[in-house]
Amino acid sequence: MAAPATFDAGRLAPERALALGPVALLRRRIFGHRSLMLGIVVLGLMLAMGLLAYFIAPHDPYAQSLASRRFPPIWHAWIWDDPKAGWNNVLGTDKVGRDYLSRLIYGARISLLIGFATMVISGLIGTTLGVLAGYFGGRVDMVVTFLVTTRLSMPVVLVALAVVALFGSSLEMVILVLGFLLWDRFAVVMRSVTMQARDLDYVTAARAIGCSTPYIIVREIMPNIVNSLVVVATVEMANAILLEAALSFLGLGVQPPLPSWGLMLSEAKEDMFFSPWMITLPGICLFMLVLSINLLGDGVRDVTAPEGRN
């Protein structure tokens, strides 16, 4: 009697992949990648919170009330029967009576703006230098390598502190300083992957048929190094958000009364032993935002990788 047929998932998976088509296969990879979906959901909620802050914030984040200072969050009414806690200020108030939930909601807008703007500025600088150095090599590579080495010799936090202290601290200044200081990782990674891509067959074929250098860089090389670019972009965006929080915590970043999460941490450090929720809540928000950005970048790299990782 013949043995019953068994299902070989490994053998049939490629056939199913071909039958699904590229779009359906990409959709299947996206929805099957748990960390990517988690990053999309959390980052989407943070983005929606920042964009819709005017509509969903229960109070004006700048409105002060000395009679409502340091009101505890709602769970203090449930656990300790605190009469100051109530639904009017769900997450309590800070030391000048501003609603904490409203400031957390508006703080998402500040962090996302700084992270995205810094990523764009540093990405344009670093990607341009890295691709040029990797493609042309020679003296161009030597000059870019010298610039990267010079940049790496300067501590980011110390330089940012010095520049902000000299020229003043504001939202625009923080974005410019971080944008011009965080391009080195873009340059190093793009140089490496471009050097690998420039000797591949499709680039050689493009040169053989007479394609121009800008055409080869834009149409042949850039689409094939976008995976690495996405990963570096997300890492630098998260890094910029944390650096802004550090500068604001030290008093040289975003200035009051803007509702920055780093500034909220700085303002709450005096009350961290008596009202620990004031420093815990913005810290959790920062953690969730940075984690979601890193999960998104790692997941996008996986689902768009040429080898088709899941």
Task: Give an overview in words.
The protein is built from 15 helices and no strands. The model is unreliable at 1-12 (pLDDT under 50). α3 (34-51) packs across α6 (100-136) and α6 (100-136) crosses α10 (184-197). The protein is elongated. It has helices at residues 9-20, 22-32, 34-51, 53-56, 75-79, 100-136, 138-152, 156-167, 171-179, 184-197, 201-208, 213-221, 226-249, 261-268, 277-304. It has 310 residues and is mainly α. The longest helix has 37 residues, at 100-136. The protein has a domain at 100-304: MetI-like fold.
Write the layout of secondary structure elements.
Layout (H helix, E strand, L loop, with lengths): L8 H12 L1 H11 L1 H18 L1 H4 L18 H5 L20 H37 L1 H15 L3 H12 L3 H9 L4 H14 L3 H8 L4 H9 L4 H24 L11 H8 L8 H28 L6
Helix pairs in contact: 3-6, 3-15, 6-7, 6-9, 6-10, 6-13, 8-9, 10-13, 11-12, 13-14, 13-15, 14-15
Short description:
The protein has 310 residues and is an all-alpha fold. Helix content is 69%, strand content 0%. The two termini are 39 Å apart.
Task: Kindly report the name of the CATH homologous superfamily of one domain.
Answer: MetI-like
Q: What does the overall shape look like?
A: elongated
The sequence of SSEs as H and E is: HHHHHHHHHHHHHHH
- Rg: 25 Å
Number of helices: 15
Q: What would CATH call the architecture of one domain?
A: Orthogonal Bundle
- In what range is the share of β-strand residues? under 5%
Distance from first to last alpha carbon = 39 Å
Average per-residue pLDDT, rounded, comes to 86
CATH topology of one domain: MetI-like fold
Instruction: Provide the CATH top-level class of one domain.
Output: Mainly Alpha
**Secondary structure tally: strands:** 0
**Helical fraction:** 55-70%
**Uncertain stretches:** 1-12
Structural class: mainly alpha
Q: Sheet with the most strands?
A: none
